[in-house]
Amino acid sequence: MMRRRNTATKEAVMAVLTNSGRAMSQDAIMKQMDVDANRATIYRILNRFCEDEVVHKIVADDGKQYFAVCVKCDDVTVPRDHFHFRCTKCETIECLPANVEYSVPEKYTVQQMNCILIGICKDCS
Amino acid sequence: MMRRRNTATKEAVMAVLTNSGRAMSQDAIMKQMDVDANRATIYRILNRFCEDEVVHKIVADDGKQYFAVCVKCDDVTVPRDHFHFRCTKCETIECLPANVEYSVPEKYTVQQMNCILIGICKDCS
DNA sequence: TTAAGTGCAAAATCTTTGCAAATGT
DNA sequence: ACATTTGCAAAGATTTTGCACTTAA
After folding, report:
1. Which residue, among B27, A78, A118, B78, has the nearest Cα to B13 in the 3D structure?
2. What pLDDT is recorded for position B74?
3. Could you tell me which residues are beta bridge partners of residue A93?
4. pTM of this prediction?
5. Closest Cα in chain A, distance from residue B7 (Å)
6. How far apart are CA A123 and CA B43, in angstroms?
7. A58 in Cβ contact with A83 (< 8 Å)
8. Which residues of chain B are within 8 Å of residue A125 when distances are taken between CB atoms?
9. Separation of alpha carbons A123 and B12, rounded Å
10. How far is B91 from B123, CA to CA, in rounded Å?
């Protein structure tokens, strides 16, 4: 296992994610950061966060990756086991409290999920 | 509303989708087709199918678009209201019979969904 | 000191688009 | 006839990678 270092960029990425409380794209994160950083670096930081399981990644129906810190990241049996919601008006993506309840046919094993509901959020309705 | 025409390419795309019974990427569809066609054309055909609601599109966690004809396409209240399953071994994506049961907080409206379970399918387990 | 992190530029993917030519009805 | 469909090539967008340089510990 790799020994992580603390860097300003890493802190900045985490700060942005933490206080947005939402799932954000690399692009959106970069725009909000108070320190300059390279795109590739941000992706690398985000991917390291995912490896370390302090952030989870979801892929939205636009094909883009979004990253979120989530209290629910701890203590789950299946990664990303909750619904995400993308609002088509404000274009924000957030983690919903509800866990995904699923049932699969015989002999299927679920290891992961990526579930997004799309519509209008409370702030836009 | 646009008047659709029948073309060999369109038929070929539909034939491939129908008898695969799975969700396929443009790439995979093209490889299976018995007539030559341009990539862009295939995308355009697929998007027309989606408009006409004879095919539905899902975006998998690899960020790619997959297209499927599905009996469940008829008569649904919310588009793509069933789970999809991606097998990490055989890399196929299929529609599962189970509908997605969800609950959202107050004032949220769901118009669409994109839900994928990832794991090992019956054929690979 | 030295492994981990970064910047830059380039590559790799996937998807869409503009336009002129071809074709179904 | 003429609106729809197609091919081609180019553009767009997002994400990853190789490599040399920098930096945290």
Report:
1. B27
2. 58
3. A23, A86
4. 0.94
5. 29
6. 35
7. no
8. 107-109
9. 45
10. 11
Contact partners, residue A72, CB within 8 Å, separation at least 6: A81, A82, A95
In the 63-92 segment of chain A, residues within 7 Å (Cβ) of strand C are 63
- For residue B124 the two structure tokens come to 């690979």
Q: Which of B63, B83, B110 sits opposite A59 (nearest CB)?
A: B63
Q: B115 vs A115: CB contact, 8 Å cut-off? A: yes
Token pair listed for A91: 């274009």
Residue contact B108–A121, C-beta within 8 A: yes
Give B108's contacts in chain A (Cβ within 8 Å): 85, 117, 119-122, 125
Q: Is B33 on the interface with A (CB under 8 A)?
A: no
Reported as a single tens digit per residue, the pLDDT across A11-67 is 999 999 999 999 999 999 999 999 999 999 999 999 999 999 999 999 999 999 999
Distance of CA B70 to the CA centre of its chain: 8
DSSP codes, A5-73: ---HHHHHHHHHHHHH-SBB-HHHHHHH-SS---HHHHHHHHHHHHHTTSSEEEE-TTS-EEEE--GGG
Residue type, B62: D
Say what the alpha-carbon torsion angle A71, B109, B114, A44 is, to the nearest 10 degrees: -40
Q: Which nt sits closest to A6, CA to C1'?
A: D24
B80 — phi, psi (to 5°)? 55, 50
- Strand partners for B56: B68
